[in-house]
Design goal:
The protein has four helices and six strands; from the N terminus they run βββαβαβαβα. With 137 residues, the protein is α/β, with parallel strands linked by helices.
Length: 137
């Protein structure tokens, strides 16, 4: 049974029983101000979780399949949040499910600048993404 941590606007953040965070972008918001409000709700939920148990580490599945065709237009605020998560010591691994080529290149570039490439992988298959996240390596 998963616990819903944030269910506001275009984002849904859930925590499953195994400590897997699932961030789903449900739709694309063209208004950057509105998008920033939604991102702030997401960040607040993540910060509360990390502050509850500062020594716990999480794996994260970022599901962009609902906005696959529009992933080029993900709000700048969401991209910034994602780059912060890549640097966050609480996040062990991040699997991006359904990333199109542009998003994959963007995140790969960001991760190389932050030397966090080993944390991030791209998947089109949900089972492979979950398998990689659950793998202890």
């Amino acid at each position: 049974m998963s616990q819903i941590l944030c269910d506001k606007g275009m984002y849904l953040l859930e925590l499953d029983d195994n400590g897997l965070l699932v961030w789903t972008t449900r739709y694309y918001e063209k208004d950057e101000t509105r998008g920033m409000e939604d991102v702030n709700h997401l960040i607040e939920a993540i910060n509360i979780l990390f502050n509850q148990d500062p020594d716990k580490h999480f794996s994260m599945l970022v599901d962009v399949r609902p906005v696959y065709d529009q992933a080029f237009y993900l709000p700048q605020s969401a991209r910034r949040t994602f780059s912060k998560l890549m640097k966050n010591p609480h996040i062990k691994k991040i699997a991006i499910l359904g990333a199109n080529t542009y998003l994959a290149i963007l995140v790969e570039t960001l991760s190389r600048f932050t030397e966090m490439w080993s944390k991030v992988r791209f998947f089109r298959d949900e089972d492979k993404a979950f398998g990689w996240l659950k793998d202890g390596k």
